[in-house]
Design brief:
This protein has 2 domains: 202 residues, Aminomethyltransferase beta-barrel domains (Alpha-Beta Plaits, 2-Layer Sandwich), CATH 3.30.70.1400; 159 residues, P-loop containing nucleotide triphosphate hydrolases (Rossmann fold, 3-Layer(aba) Sandwich). The protein has 14 helices and 13 strands. α3 packs antiparallel against α4. The protein is elongated and about 80 Å long. Bound molecules: guanosine-5'-diphosphate (GDP) and magnesium ion (MG).
């Protein structure tokens, strides 16, 4: 007799399909699946998410029970059929019809595509088990105050959730010729921005992504901020100001040879109040050793670097890594990474309506997918 596999995500919807297999014999899976970390399925602890390969296909296998497994694979029909054929299994759908809710797990896995680093992808992957479990727990709580506190604590982690799929934006600002584009190139490791001796060369924003300590940062090189009558350049200056307003941090590059100019005070004023800003004294290679002391003791303390030789650039990486990424809570803490979940919980904080919350949580799949498929057993 053929095995039964339950498809938990609606067929033909979503980039990811979630299949549930119940078997006491992990060999059925093991003969086709190779975990990237080499772990044997028979040894996989409950809830362990194993990324690996099924022939040419990348997928994830999760042990969801002593005799129960979930396979998260490409959502197309061909991938699902191939996996089921390999296991000599028939697929049955947990959902039929158009009103089937989309799978929370599938939604989380789709978001994986937006994770730019392995570190952030691993954190998001853990949420495929932690978040549904948290929502199930919420669905069982009767006390309004407890629910309120748990939901508030959950939603307060929005900053962390955002950082998983979106890079931190870092504006590189300063007067023309200070070495902003050179610094961008030094941080990126290749020539992304145009470096030119004549001031005012970078007229549009140039962006480049770098990874520091497992987190993704988007550097934005701007035109020098200065008063100008050149209309093309002044639009670049506007863009630089706009870029500051949408940045998470900024690097204010100063030409050490020219020293701190009054115009730098204008730039400082354009930096939003709460935004972390680092003054970068560039062109240290042109300075005599004695004048370094002057820089370090000046009012505008910062780091001393040479974008040309690379000296001191590491301090900027350290500053970014120390200041922007959020403190990551332990892996079992649920994070507000799915907008529909956040909306549903935020609505409860306003309405305080427990039965409405339960209905919506049920419609949000996770719990309901599991419940409905369990009812079918
Ligand atoms: N000696 C020296 N020259 C630099 C350094 N950084 C930039 N420059 C030069 O300064 C000029 C302006 O640099 P650029 O990066 O285009 O400045 P931007 O206008 O602020 O983007 C170019 O000729 C660069 O080669 C540095 O650290 N040392
Ligand atoms: Mg430039």
């Amino acid at each position: 007799m053929n095995r039964k596999v339950t498809r938990l995500t609606p067929a033909g919807r979503g980039a990811v399909a979630v299949l549930r297999l119940q078997t006491a014999d992990s060999h059925v899976l093991q003969s086709h699946f190779a975990a990237a970390n080499g772990m044997r399925l028979a040894e996989a602890p409950l809830g362990r998410i194993l990324y690996g390969h099924w022939g040419p296909e990348d997928l994830v296998v999760v042990r969801t029970g002593a005799e129960e497994w979930e396979i998260h694979c490409h959502g197309g029909q061909a991938a699902v059929e191939r996996i089921c054929d390999d296991m000599n299994a028939d697929v049955q759908d947990a959902f039929v019809g158009d009103d089937a809710p989309s799978s929370l797990t599938a939604c989380l896995l789709q978001q994986l595509a937006s994770c730019r680093t392995r570190r952030t992808a691993e954190i998001l992957l853990t949420q495929t088990t932690v978040l549904p479990e948290f929502l199930r727990t919420l669905g069982q709580i009767d006390q309004q105050q407890t629910l309120k506190e748990m939901i508030e604590a959950f939603l307060a982690r929005r900053g962390i959730a955002q950082a998983l799929t979106r890079p931190f934006r870092v504006a590189i600002v300063g007067q023309p010729n200070a070495g902003k584009s050179s610094l961008m190139n030094a941080l990126v490791g290749y020539d992304r921005a145009i470096v030119y001796e004549q001031p005012g060369t970078t007229r549009d924003l140039v962006e480049a992504d770098i990874v520091i300590d497992g987190w993704s940062f988007q550097l934005v090189d701007t035109a020098g901020i200065r008063r100008t009558s050149d209309t093309v350049e002044s639009s670049g200056v506007e863009a630089a100001k706009a870029s500051l307003s949408s940045s998470d941090a900024c690097l204010l590059v100063v030409d050490t040879v020219a020293g701190w100019q009054p115009a730098n005070d204008d730039i400082r004023q354009a930096v939003p109040a709460m935004q972390p800003a680092l003054t970068v004294w560039n062109k240290s290679d042109l300075m005599e050793a004695t004048s370094a002391t002057e820089v370090e003791t000046s009012e505008q303390a910062g780091v001393r670097i040479s974008a040309l030789t690379g000296e001191g650039v590491e301090q900027i990486r350290d500053w970014l890594a120390a200041g922007l990424p959020p403190g990551i809570p332990p892996g079992n803490v649920p994070l507000p990474v799915v907008e529909s979940v956040n909306e549903c919980l935020a609505d409860f904080l306003v309405s305080k309506d427990i039965s409405a919350l339960r209905l919506r949580l049920a419609a949000l799949d996770c719990g309901s997918t599991t419940d409905r498929s369990r009812q079918q057993r």
